[in-house]
Amino acid sequence: MTTTNLRDHALSFRALHVAGRPLVLPNAWDAASARVIEAAGAAAVATTSAGVAWDLGAADGDRLGGDRALGAVARIAGAVGVPVTADIESGYAADPAGVARTVREVLAAGAVGVNIEDALYEGDAEYEGSASLRTVAGQAERIAAARAAADAADVPLFINARIDTYLRGVGELTDRAGVTLERAAAFLAAGADGIFVPGAVDPGTVRTLVEGIDGPLNVMAGPGAPTVAEFAGLGVARISVGSGIAQAAHAVVREAARELLAEGTYASLAGGLDYGELNTLFAG
């Protein structure tokens, strides 16, 4: 994809983030899932780092090398005509310069958005436990490096800064919104375009975040969460489902395998997509 086409895709993707009229992003993990999602009517496709890692035989949580992850992003972007945003975990790098390099590779792969999370994992120099997050200043430097790399490429990459305060249960619940808003303000000032707060689905919490964040809010939905219409009413600008679709797909694999092996029957295969329909998605 040329720089001009990337820029056009990036501008189109950016325009889809409207508070109260959220961009709904089913998350894909390979070319086939991306093509099916596009055919279902999605305006854009997001990747799921967990789904990509599992597809490539690795665990989620910064355990998949950047080269393999970005190879999957390239295959997904090459399979669809709509904009693609890539979940790049912590940036597949130990320092801001490495994050900048990853962003350049994301653009080369054909994606026009990224999620960059602030969680730390075992092996990170700053890691002090399962609930650890990067320092605000340290994460802001990584976001600024990502912004500078995209600007240098003349592509308005949409940087979605993920804040894991709710997902990881950081701090007391009564202080969590304040901590999240503080981090959000710093990350937006560093060059982020939107804020992603997975784990925050309570309507009161979501409204507090929408009102306190000077940018589009992305939430992660799933069973038991408010509907898309309800999130829209709260002012949410973007809704994704993380690894949820991949998990559901793999549950079908397990159930079908167990039934076939234990019962010798095939009821779990009922309702599958038609072979011809799937094959047509990739023909020509």
Describe the structure.
The protein has a single domain, classed as Alpha-Beta Barrel (TIM Barrel), CATH 3.20.20.60. The radius of gyration is 19 Å and the shape is globular. Strands 1-9-8-7-6-5-4-3-2 form a nine-stranded parallel β-sheet. By secondary structure, the protein is α/β, with parallel strands linked by helices. The protein has helices at 3-15, 31-39, 49-55, 66-79, 96-109, 136-152, 173-190, 203-212, 228-234, 244-262, 275-281, and strands at 23-25, 27-28, 45-47, 84-87, 113-117, 158-162, 194-196, 217-220, 238-240. The two termini are 19 Å apart. The mean pLDDT is 94.
* CATH topology assignment: TIM Barrel
What percentage of the residues does DSSP assign to strands (E)?
A: 5-15%
CATH architecture: Alpha-Beta Barrel
Count the helices. How many?
Answer: 11
Biggest sheet descriptor: 9 strands, parallel
Q: Which CATH class is shown?
A: Alpha Beta
Instruction: Please give the alpha-carbon distance between the first and last residues.
Output: 19 Å
The helicity comes to: 40-55%
Query: N-to-C SSE series?
Result: HEEHEHHEHEHEHEHEHEHH
CATH superfamily: Phosphoenolpyruvate-binding domains
Extract low-pLDDT stretches. none
InterPro entries: ICL/PEPM (IPR039556), Pyrv/PenolPyrv_kinase-like_dom (IPR015813), Pyrv_kinase-like_dom_sf (IPR040442)
Protein name: Isocitrate lyase/phosphoenolpyruvate mutase family protein
Pfam families: PEP_mutase
Keywords: Lyase
